[in-house]
Design goal:
Elements: E1 9-10, E2 12-15, H1 21-28, E3 36-39, H2 48-51, H3 56-59, E4 69-70, E5 83-84, H4 106-116, H5 123-133, E6 134-136, E7 150-152, H6 160-171, E8 187-190, E9 195-196, E10 199-200, H7 203-211, E11 217-220, E12 223-231, E13 236-244, E14 247-253, E15 260-263, H8 266-276, E16 279-280, H9 282-287, E17 294-295, E18 307-314, H10 321-325, H11 328-341, E19 353-357, E20 368-373, E21 389-396, E22 404-406, E23 417-419, H12 426-443, E24 454-457, H13 465-475, E25 476-478, E26 510-512, H14 527-542
Helix pairs in contact: 1-7, 1-14, 5-14, 12-13
Length: 544
């Protein structure tokens, strides 16, 4: 992808070429009269492991594609710190994520309407936007669109042990499902994935590749945005200061003709840029010696994430990927199958089988999500176990715990302090205990009995609520869904950073369009909802 030196000013400056930024670049350049600059901190997405689905293993915690953040030590995780991957490459997190296509539940969007007072965020309106950019593997219908840029595919592999787990979940009272995207996720089935013919589909490929051919789009990679350019008197955001090839460069936005700067750097990155620019909690900014442009105490607060509890079960008499991938011959066969057919383990998303369930009968809708895998390992990045096993990761999709992210330095390369505050509420701790018990109920179903499942992690010694909560702290890890740190909200919400049209409060010509805008996290994987937010922003900016 070619890079051009920026002209004097643009109609739109988009910061971050991730799940939202790439779509915005395409939508906003559809008008040839509009000049758009897209600034990305990472490199081009021409790294082969980005495009091979199993390559996420080689992208996460790799500076070629990941910011390599870590959390602070978490009390709820018994003092552990976690890797906190965020994409630093064209395509952003869509280049390194789990490729699961998930919209969330109808009730998620009702809560957004309640938080913002804006019915444009309703499930009905969100569904219309999803269908506009979707290219579904089946025929177009009431739930799915056809012909959009974003391919939604069936997975290209199955494992007998996953089918057995599916039957066990059905026996435990979770109905079969072949579509988790109709507004009520309750059920068990194989995930749909963001892939095209066995290759990962990222937003750079889906949206930016065509847009980059347009003369009115300039893309700059390996450019770190230092701060926004803001007139403290008028509160106009009129440009951006960034560092490229060791040089500090400023570029302007044509605010005289309603130009805008659009932050799409994600739930972590957008906070960092806002705070370095003097937008955030006045007390925190003053501690760092940053002049306060707008005192918005909600910047960096309201961090929400999905914590997965990785339960591992040894099995006998049925094959898993552990034994297949641990032999040289097995690895050769896996590689050959992908080369010839674009199928098999190298084509698989990190999780294949999914389920949504009620952790207890008093939940209003399915509140836990399972990611089930025909493999097991001690922790991410390590070798698979030598024994046959499956992993049933369960996460609370509507956590009540709230964390924060804030800069601790003016250095744009310095990592922020990320404190998710997992399991900090009594409700979340109870859901964790209930979830572990629910998994055991599924494992005890008749379908799995012939395979003698044995709980390897956390272990049957954990039985009481107190013991299970401690176990959750030992085995819990992020599923990489941070949202909410620049949330939308009503005028009377002092912690709302944005209005319902994604405009930064008290500022002019500045919006935040990414997962940080969510008032509450969606009940499932968050990539598709982030694209839907970008679709809404495009509607607002183009008047369509």
């Amino acid at each position: 992808m070619t890079q051009a030196l920026p002209p004097q000013s643009y109609d739109y400056i988009i910061i971050g070429a991730g799940s939202a930024g790439c779509m915005l670049a395409k939508r906003l350049t559809e008008n040839p009269a509009k000049r758009v600059l897209l600034i990305e901190a990472g490199k081009n997405d021409n790294y082969i492991w980005i495009h091979i689905p199993v390559g996420y293993l080689y992208c996460i915690d790799n500076p070629r594609a990941d910011w390599r953040f870590k959390t602070a030590a978490e009390k709820g995780l018994n003092g552990r710190s976690l890797l906190y991957p965020r994409g630093r490459v064209l395509g952003g997190c869509s280049s390194i994520n789990g490729m699961i296509y998930m919209r969330g539940q109808e009730g998620d969007y009702a809560s957004w309407v309640q938080a913002t007072g804006d019915a444009s965020w309703s499930w009905k309106n969100a569904l219309r936007r999803y269908k506009e950019f979707e290219d579904y593997h089946g025929a177009a219908n009431a739930w799915h669109g056809k012909g959009g840029e974003w391919t939604v595919s069936k997975q290209r592999l199955r494992w007998p042990v996953m089918d057995v787990f599916r039957q066990a979940a059905i026996e435990a009272g979770i109905p079969a499902s072949d579509d988790f995207n109709q507004g009520d996720n309750f059920g068990v089935g194989y995930f749909d994935v963001s892939q095209r013919k066995g290759w990962r589909l990222n937003t750079a490929k889906a949206f930016l590749r065509d847009a980059a051919k347009r003369p009115n789009l300039t893309v700059i990679t390996e450019a770190i945005v230092n701060k926004l350019l803001i007139d403290p008197a008028s509160k106009n955001c009129y440009g951006v200061e960034y560092i490229h090839d060791g040089k500090t460069i400023t570029t302007h936005c044509d605010i005289a003709h309603q130009g805008e700067v659009i932050l799409s750097a994600g739930a972590i990155g957008s906070v960092q840029i806002l705070e370095r620019s003097g937008i955030g909690s006045a007390a925190h900014l003053q501690e760092l010696g940053i002049p306060v442009v707008a005192d918005l105490p909600g910047v960096g607060e309201n961090l929400q994430d999905h914590l997965q509890l990785r339960m591992i079960y040894k099995v006998s008499g049925i094959k898993t990927l552990n034994t297949k991938a641990n032999s040289l011959w097995g690895k050769l066969l896996i590689g050959l199958e992908y080369i010839l057919k674009r199928s098999g383990p190298m084509s698989m998303a990190p999780s294949q089988l999914g389920a949504f369930a009620y952790s207890s009968p008093d939940q209003p809708s399915a509140n836990v999500e399972y990611h089930v895998q025909p493999l097991s390992l001690e922790k991410f990045g390590e070798d698979l176990h030598a024994f046959n096993a499956i992993t049933a990761s369960v996460c609370n999709v509507r956590p009540s715990s709230r964390g924060s992210v804030h800069i601790s330095s003016l250095d744009p390369e310095a990592p922020p302090t990320i404190a998710p505050n997992y399991l900090s509420t009594a409700d979340d701790r109870q859901v964790a205990a209930d979830s572990l018990r629910l998994t055991r109920k599924i494992i005890q179903s008749a379908a799995l009995e012939p395979y003698s499942p044995e709980e390897y992690k956390p272990g049957q010694q954990y039985q009481t609520d107190e013991e299970l909560i401690k176990a959750a702290g030992d085995i819990g890890t992020t599923i990489f869904h941070p949202v909410g740190t620049c949330k939308m909200g009503r005028d009377d919400d002092p912690m709302a950073v944005l209005d319902s049209e994604l405009r930064v409060r008290g500022m002019h010509h500045l919006r935040v369009v990414d997962a940080s805008a969510m008032p509450t996290i969606t009940s499932g994987n968050t990539a598709a909802p982030t694209m839907m937010i970008a679709q809404r922003a495009a509607e607002l900016l183009t008047g369509e």
